[in-house]
Amino acid sequence: MTRSFAVVAGACVVLRLGGIGLAGEQATAVPRPNVVIMFPDNLGWGEVNVYGGVRGAITPRLDRMAAEGLRLNNFNVEFSCTVSRAALMTGRYAIRTGATQGAGMTLWEVTIAEALQSIGYITGLFGKWHLGGNRPENRNPSQQGFDEYYGIPRTSNEAQTTIAQGETAPNTSFIWEGKTGSPPRNVKPFDLQTRRTIDRESAERAVAFMERSVRARKPFFVYYAMTQIHFPTLTHPDFVGKTGAGDIADAMAELDHNVGVMLDAIDRLGISRTTIVFWCSDNGAEGRRPWRGSSGPWSGFYNSVMEGGIRTPCLVRWPGVIPAGRVTNELVHEIDLFPTIAAAVGAAVVPRDRAIDGVDQLPFFAGKQTTSNRESVLLYANAQLRAVKWHDWKLHYVYAPESGGPAVAPLMRLFNLLSDPREETDVKDANPWVQSVTDRILNEFNATTRRYPHVPPNAPDPYQPPKM
Amino acid sequence: MKRREFIAVPAVALCLTVLPATLPAQPPADFSGRWTLDSPAIATTPAVPGTPAAAAAPGDMGSGWGSTITIAQDANRLTVEYAFFSRYDLQPPLTFIYPLDGSTGKNTVTMGRGEQVESSRAQWSGQTLVITTTFDVVDRAAGKPFTAELTRRLSLESKTMLIVEVTRAGVLGGPASTTRSIYRRS
Hints:
- The structure holds two protein chains of two kinds.
- Chain A is 24% helix and 19% strand.
- Chain A has helices at residues 60-68, 81-90, 94-97, 112-117, 158-161, 194-215, 247-268, 307-310, 337-345, 362-365, 434-451, and strands at residues 14-17, 20-23, 34-38, 70-76, 122-128, 148-152, 174-179, 185-189, 220-225, 275-280, 311-317, 326-328, 332-333, 376-381, 384-390, 393-396, 413-416.
- Chain A starts with 13 loop residues before the first strand and ends in a 17-residue tail after the last helix.
- By secondary structure, chain B is mostly beta strands.
- In chain B, 13% of the residues lie in helices and 44% in strands.
- Chain A binds chain B through residues 95, 375, 381-384, 390-393, 397-399, 406-407, 409-412, 416, 419-420, 425, 427-433, 435-440, 443, 454, and chain B through 39, 42-44, 46-49, 57-62, 64-67, 84, 94, 109, 111-113, 116, 135, 137, 140-141, 148, 150, 166, 168-177.
């Protein structure tokens, strides 16, 4: 068993920070930290100044957040929107969840929101959901642990046609809202006008939510799932033409502003030192013209498992716990956020009845150890395993460099991401031994599926796992 | 009838015993020539997890010598050469020399990660040439140095078909794997 497959990791979540020891559910004497995840959409590495952005210095707030916290240079995600959100929310590789864009994710899955809600957190989603499939009212955020939500049920491109995913007629795409105990309510059409304003609205609602939570003296979880810079990359009117560098740059300036709105609110409320903030993208750069994004030094775009599709910026800020200004190239995956948050709040809330692929990275984030608790990453394209990363090595089992494109022979290709970041020089002939390591990692993962079979794609609710 | 059979059997046995000693020894297989990999078909649709198609590796690690190779062979050595880089790169082809006298030869490979030296020893097993290659691996990811081993078995299926079967020994707790590559004379 490698460090990557900490099945039932939540069973042993123990936190020791700054000499304060918290264990399991006994941590009542110390207030639990708030948790904020800001999760932009289709945002590539090359869009952020501190990551070597290509469009000028248009992200001062993100740059400052990096200076105030931890910058991850090897943060990995799933290759596409719905599967990435499934992985983020569950701490499981999406292949295990059976999540698909059309059907969403079964309610049997336990999300970060459900876990935190179970220990008294107030939970809110502001922005994009996209885990409810074509009938999101039946798999809506309040059924997955969010006390309230506001945003779009599915994805941003609906704004161009106003045809909701799974529908055929226009005027079927809406901005929705909801709360626990009530069905979702359509608020207004989601079209090219409201597409421009949804992120600002969501930020304002998220701030109001945080203010209410602080007044109520309740710890909160905010999931600010930003819709920028997914196509159509049309920004808030306040930012149109602001950078002089095009639509994506304008959208990044808006996004950066909204990050600032969130961080300023946290500072103003006096909860900076009790709030852990993550900012990371769901997948790699937008690839669709005319809003093709930048993958920075990497090759490829989202919908591929090239580094440009699965390696995204990630910043983590928690003053007093996570040292400021640290930069690392250690492997981290979005599935690690769930166990890491569980450790941060000092509660064993990670499910124990299923395989959890995420690992607790808090000791690493907090500078208590120099290495990540993760050695490898599995990269799937929906049901197909495409590649395995092990430290700086990446073995493609099925090399398909173009988003949605065919596999290209030779299928198996080995790259070293330090000496060849663009995955251009296949060095398997000189390093054939790497396959043995990645095969072992795959075998270990597959062994867990015998005890914990994958949820079948498109599985209906209520889902019950087979008895093994 | 019975008597003739009785006589014929010792005669055949005599021939089998005496003839090999009197005929010259069969020369070893000659792999010289230019060979091109017989590419396997690529599945156009992803395999469904849990099915036999998914279990079968859709690709492979190849022979370790690329898709088009040129082999020169004499009594003392086997030389394998293949173009790894593009014309633009202005790099010579990769060349591997394997002594055929039982001694150990060293080849140095430069692929942008320093000079990687591999040691090889070749021996005949009938008409099959077995080349065992070891790599001393010093890699940050592995933690401590270790030795990896790769064994190639070269044989001629016919005058125009070369089989290169490669077994990569397991390392760091991982399994071994074997790839069978078919080259055709080009």
